[in-house]
Amino acid sequence: MARKKDPISQTRGVLYGLAKILGDVSAVKKGTVGKRIARRAAGKATGRLLGKLFK
To answer: CA 31, CA 24: separation in Å to the nearest integer?
Structure first.
């Protein structure tokens, strides 16, 4: 049986999701989509590496 998330965690998740979407919209307006994609990929790779390192 899956644990139910508390309302604060759910709200935080929604807000982070909205922030990500707003960042994407902003990048499209400025014309820096490629830079944003590269930075997001680098951040994911770094997060995975640190996750494995401190596991």
So the answer is: 10
- CA 24 vs. chain centroid, Å, equals 11
| Token pair recorded at residue 26 | 């902003």
Q: For 1-41, what is each residue's pLDDT tens digit?
A: 567 779 999 999 999 999 999 999 999 999 999 999 999 99
pTM of the model: 0.68
Tell me if 27 sits within 8 A of 33, measured CB to CB: yes
- The C-alpha atoms of residue 35 and residue 26 are separated, in whole angstroms, by 12
Q: Indicate the SS3 state at residue 14.
A: helix
CA atoms within 13 A on the CB side of 13: 6
